Every structure is written in structure tokens, then in C-alpha cells.
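Q: Please design a sequence for this.
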């Protein structure tokens, strides 16, 4: 369970490794972490997702909206997104693109558009040119978005999210 202080590992499989310690909330949620809802909500649900993952897409289309309507809108829960780019190389490109959308305050619109129009895994639907078109279609500033995506400025953030997921 995660609250605004630490990640409680007490429910996890206990290891004899005494070097395992709780993760601080600030190591999980940073200024670049997309967050939906009240940042001071007593519970923060962190989704680790891949824009090419079919189950992640189903969660975004079906379960996520139910959680939002029942808990986020009432202020009980906030939702955060971390990148778990494991499906293929286009997963990383889509993740970086979503962070570029986040720069313009439109992460969740971009997130929803990607999942609502998700193609088959590694079929090419998440290539840079298509992501740039999607960004333009939803109203992102084309020049800023394209420049951001072409610069790979969020590559380390995306890599760090994946490494964090592996630690958890």
C-alpha cells in the first residue's frame, strides 16, 4: 500500500535479504510523473504501463475510468503513471511522446488517445510519425511536441521508470 510517505512492503514476499527497504513516496512521484486527481489524496494508485500492451490498454479503457469516477473525482485517490516499456522499441518512443504531451499539460488526453486507438503489438502504430500526427490531432503545439520527441529528452526518465518497476 502506498501513502504519501512510503511504499509498504510488509505484504510482499519476505526475503532474508535485510538490505530491502521501503521506497519513499518522493522517489516514486516526481515533478515529471503524470498525476490525475488531488495530489494530496490519501491514496495514490501508480500504474506501470506500456502503450503497446493490450492488457494495459484494456485497463485504460475499462478499469481506469471506473476508478476515476468512483475514487479520483471524490478526492479519495490520485492516479499516477509510470512507464513500463517492455513490449518493443516503439513502446519507448510512445512513452517519450507521452512525456512531451505532459509538458503541454495534455498527458492524460494523449494517454487516452493512444490506448483508444491502440494497434497490435510492434505493428508500427507507435512510430514517431504516427505519434506526431496524434499529438497534432488532439491539439498539441506541433513544433514544440515534434522538437521534444526528436530530442529524446525523456529517454532517461523512461529508462528510470522501467528500472524502478524492476526494483519493485
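A: Design:
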Amino acid at each position: 500500500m502506498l501513502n504519501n510517505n512510503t511504499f509498504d512492503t510488509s505484504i510482499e514476499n519476505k526475503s532474508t535479504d535485510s538490505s530491502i527497504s521501503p521506497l519513499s513516496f518522493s522517489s516514486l512521484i516526481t515533478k515529471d510523473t503524470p498525476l490525475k486527481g488531488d495530489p494530496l489524496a490519501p491514496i495514490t494508485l501508480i500504474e506501470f504501463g506500456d502503450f503497446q500492451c493490450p492488457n494495459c490498454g484494456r485497463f485504460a479503457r475499462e478499469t481506469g475510468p471506473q476508478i476515476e469516477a468512483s475514487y479520483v473525482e471524490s478526492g479519495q485517490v490520485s492516479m499516477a503513471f509510470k512507464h513500463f516499456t517492455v513490449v518493443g522499441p516503439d513502446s519507448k518512443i510512445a512513452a517519450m511522446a507521452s512525456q512531451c504531451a505532459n509538458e503541454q499539460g495534455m498527458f492524460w488526453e494523449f494517454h487516452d488517445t493512444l490506448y483508444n486507438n491502440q494497434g497490435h503489438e510492434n505493428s508500427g502504430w507507435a512510430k514517431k510519425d504516427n505519434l506526431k500526427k496524434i499529438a497534432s490531432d488532439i491539439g498539441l503545439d506541433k513544433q514544440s511536441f515534434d522538437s521534444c520527441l526528436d530530442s529524446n529528452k525523456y529517454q532517461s526518465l523512461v529508462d528510470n521508470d522501467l528500472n524502478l518497476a524492476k526494483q519493485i
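Q: Thanks. Anything notable?
A: The first helix runs from residue 25 to 28. Confidence is low (pLDDT under 50) at residues 5-16.
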